[in-house]
Structure formats: C-alpha cells, structure tokens
Amino acid sequence: MSMKFPFFKRKKPTQLQNDCDLLNVPEHVAIIMDGNGRWAKQKGLPRVAGHKEGMDVVSNTVKAAVNFDIKILTLFAFSTENWKRPKPEVEFIMRLPKDFLHTYLPGLIENNVRIDTIGDFNGLPDYTKEAIQYAKDQTKDNDGLLLNFALNYGSRYEIMRAIKLIMSDADLSKISVDEIDESTFSEYLYTNGISDPDLLIRTSGEMRLSNFLLWQLAYTEFWFTDVLWPDFSEEIFKQALLDYQQRKRRYGGI
Ligand code: FPP
Q1: Which residues hold Mg(2+) (predicted)?
Q2: Residue 60 bears catalytic tag
C-alpha cells in the first residue's frame, strides 16, 4: 500500500515547512477552489478536465496540510447554487468523490486523516453519498487532519436551517429564548464542534465569498490569489501561510 502512495507518507520537515513557524500555522484553513473551468478553457480542454485536475490538486493540498500540521481543512467542492450548471458537468463533479476516494483513501487512512462533510448530504446522488459515507466510516476514529468537504453546501441555507432547528427545539421545550447566544447558535450549524476558520484562501482572482461559511468567517483572515485552482501548489499554500503569520488578529480589540 505504501508503495502505491510513496509521496503521501508524512515526511521529515521539508524546507518549505522549515520556512514556516510551525507553532503559528492556522488551525483551520478553508479554501474556495475556483478556476477549474478557466484553467481548462486556457488549455483548449473541456471544463470537466479542469475539475479532474482540480481533484488531483485536492490530494496534493491535503498532503501539504498534513505536512504543515494544519488540523482542519475545509474545501468548498460544490455549492447549493452549482446545481444550475449543465447536467453533465454536475454529474461529473458528483462522481469525483468516488474517484478521489478510490485512488486516495488508503493514503488518507495511512496518514490518520478523518473525512467529513458539511452541507445537505441527503440531497446528493446515492453513488456520491455511498462513497463518502464509506470514507467517513473508515476514518471516523482517526485523529489527524480533519478533511472536511463542503458539498451541496450554502451558508444562507445553513443559517436558515439552524433557525428552523432552534424553533423546533423551542416548540419541544428543549431550548428557551434566553439560552440562544452565539455559542448555542453555532451548535445548530453544520460546523458544530469545529473551530471557525483562521484562514480563508480563494483561488482564481475572484474576491467574494459565494455563500461560503458566512457566519463562521466573521474573524477569519482572507487570502486571495490569481492562481487557478488546478495550478495551486504546496509553494503557493506556503505563501498563504507566511502571509497569515504576518497578520495581527485583533478580533475587534486593539
Ligand atoms: C469551481 O471552479 C470549482 C468547482 C465548482 C468544483 C470544485 C471541485 C473540485 C476542485 C474537485 C473536488 C474534488 C473532490 C474530491 C470532491 P469553476 O468551475 O467555477 O471554475 P471557473 O470559475 O473558471 O468556471
């Protein structure tokens, strides 16, 4: 197995890693992986070729996150708005988790990675759900990197869903109005139990949140790059981490 994943085994500190102050890496990094379509178009390839390449870059990014000792990596893989895309493209993206896990799950297990998702899981096609559920079950006891895929995820939907869940608990007298504060509200989000992202990266030069983690990103540091997702690399990841280390996080204080 390790022969098949020779590059995934956690290495001794690399030069890249030595350049970073490992005590000050963000605990939770969230990434909006954008630009697959443009990458493909630039190469005269169909859009789905960009998504395929983007899938392999996910694997490299996970390896880098393990090497950098990041605890949580949340990747925006499919939004509730992405269903508006042409059906063949949606189907292609929905098959990527199975492809990805078929190739990379043994390496992820070997590296103690736990896989989870946020978003409306039940709204995914059966073949997507089955592949991911299998990976969740196989990795549930791992306590290394949490690899968290946002799939069929929309932040406004998530917030509205939380309100409905709170109202339903209130109807059942499980919660009273006085008990609802920021911390209790967070428990009704998909990200319950996960710390808010410290760093958000978005590729492809777009500077918007696209309905991603609106509540959770309140005090997150943002980092944008013009690089298209299929060209993202450990080197660019390191640049984001080095820039993050220069930021002064004040959380509204002075
Ligand atoms: C945005 O680029 C990308 C997506 C909507 C799909 C992202 C999916 C992956 C990177 C692969 C995910 C892998 C797994 C394992 C789930 P875009 O198509 O909007 O690019 P464009 O803005 O250039 O058109």
Answers
A1: 34, 221
A2: no
